[in-house]
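Pasting as-is:
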Amino acid sequence: MVIPEELLLEIFSRLPLVGIIHARSVCKHWRQTVLLADIHPPRVKLYEFYLMCISSDIFQESRKSFLPRLIPFNRKAYIENLERQYPYIPDEFVCWILEWPAKAITSHYWPGLPCKVDENSEDSGPNALGCSSPTVETIASYELENGTMGYIRGLKVVNVVGMREAWIVFDAPREDILGTVVEIGMYILEVDDGNIRGRNASSWTEWQQRELEDLDAWARSPMRHIVDVMRRHDQHQVTT
């Protein structure tokens, strides 16, 4: 039975992200047709990011580290908790939380992973998304022309104490800042008339793409191999 093209496009437009991923695997025709459908734009971006992931060497290698540590969590309740604190949650972030395949996570920053990479560490851990009760907080403040203070609020994603923080912006005076990801710590953060200047990404998906590119670059660097040798040496010392 041949499914009419119009019906196929209608079906594809209603599929969640995992359904689109499965559809592309059915046959060459479906793989070529799926993105011709009228799919929710954040879902398209995440689908394209998924294709980038599965072609990445470091993505395949990292499954050994991430998959054994995955913890189930209530995705809908996670978003509802954030919405109770602030009504606007960026669409790409919501789609990622609700639909991204857990086994395809690309970094430590996922609600279904522990906060800490090393359980023996004394700090709270870099995975700020893994906290049991995520909280919308003030990222920065700035003075308005009338002398009052304005505030930029968001959700912390990365928390490497004293080195790096990354936030996804939920609330800002300028619409072009909403949904961006800003980094603080190693990078300078300046707020000028509500405009954040720093190492920013224009969207949640763009930030994840950059994180994956950074990991790929690290995997190809000579320093990575030196660190691996040192780690294996330390493990050998412990076991002998």
